[in-house]
UniProtKB/TrEMBL annotation:
This is Protein LURP-one-related 10-like. InterPro entries: LOR, LOR_sf, Tubby-like_C. Belongs to the LOR family.
Amino acid sequence: MVIGQEFVTQHPVDLEMMQKTFSLGMNDYLIFQVKSKIATVRDIRYLQDAYGNIFVSLKHKANDAHGRWEVFRGESIEQKDLLFSVKQSSVFQLVSSKVKCIPTFYTRQKSVPDFRIEGAFIDSSCTIYLGNSNTIVAHRHQQHNLKSTIRWKTIFK
């Protein structure tokens, strides 16, 4: 469990991403929000629940050719609170993209990442797999219709 038991469901849930908010279903019920601090030099974003409680911080690593993002527990960006990092598997990826999700204990305890993310840049889709298996944990696809274009909506399953 990377984040918390409160985010686990027994059945698949469709999440819609609209600009900087995540919502559930057609009623736009807010579940998560991504926030950033306006006056900051670092590229840090915060994922918070509908009540404003921050549960992870996302920090973009400057000067990293693989586009690495680090995810920390709570509002912290200290290495002791690092949960995992995500990076592209190759520096040069034009059409398809493979991303590695690397937990903090990855290099010390095991040689297989907890998650593998594969997707295509052109159609803005990706699939998240469990480790190196073909077990799908989540899927993201861009919905292409007039409503989604106006509202910039992406569906996560």
